[in-house]
Amino acid sequence: MSKKQELKQDLPATAWAVLGLLSFPGERTGYELKKWADSSLRFFYWSPAISQIYAELRRLEELGYASSARSGPEEPRAKRRYAITGAGREALSDWAADTAEAGPPVLKHGLLLRIWLGHLAEPARLRAMVGEHLERTRGELAAVREAVEQAADVPQWAFPSLALRWSERQHLAELELGEALLADLAELSSRDGTAGRQAGGDAPTPG
């Protein structure tokens, strides 16, 4: 197996995401790719750090999936712009069509982990944490809706628009779940002696 074949097999999701950003029309700098990720990918997947983006761009160039060129003297500061190659587009199409690689969604909810450990916390603090989470979610929802508006009039972003609209619905659902969690916490606190019962004894699982 050649070095290129080994690299292709070992490509992480970050590399495919960066290559996906390059698959839209135009050439972009690493900084522009980061901005595009922050206004799209982060709402339903994640946004790689700028250092990760440049590391993957180097890897993609080595594989022949991306090419780059420095800007000319007409720009005050030289910039390196990246573009997808034919081989890169073909490889990305194969990867995107491979549903077996998509896998199930992975949820890692930091707030819920703390709720799970609620027997170690004050009820008022738990309610405050949920309230803070709701405020952050409302802010993210506003950002998603702004991204939806920006993408709406760009024909090449029709499919990213679908992903963003899914994210809008997901954030609305998160708000509904958060409000329900607040109600659950209030109900739990109203029961005499209920809070903290799970601090000892057997785990509340079957079997």
Kindly state the mean pLDDT as a whole number?
87
Order of the strands making up the biggest sheet: 1-2
Helix/strand structural class? mainly alpha
Question: Biggest sheet: strands, sense, closure?
Answer: 2 strands, antiparallel
Rounded to the nearest angstrom, the distance between the terminal CA atoms is: 49 Å
Which regions are unreliable across 5 or more consecutive residues at pLDDT < 50? Answer: 194-199
Rounded to an integer in angstroms, the radius of gyration calculated over CA atoms is 23 Å
Query: What fraction of the residues are assigned to beta strands by DSSP?
Result: under 5%
- Number of DSSP helical runs: 8
Specify the helix fraction band. Answer: 55-70%
Element string (H = helix, E = strand) = HHHHEEHHHH
Plain-language structure description:
The protein is mainly α and 207 residues long. It is built from eight helices and two strands, in the order H-H-H-H-E-E-H-H-H-H. A two-stranded antiparallel sheet has the order 1-2. The longest helix has 33 residues, at 158-190. It is elongated and about 70 Å long. The model is unreliable at 194-199 (pLDDT under 50).
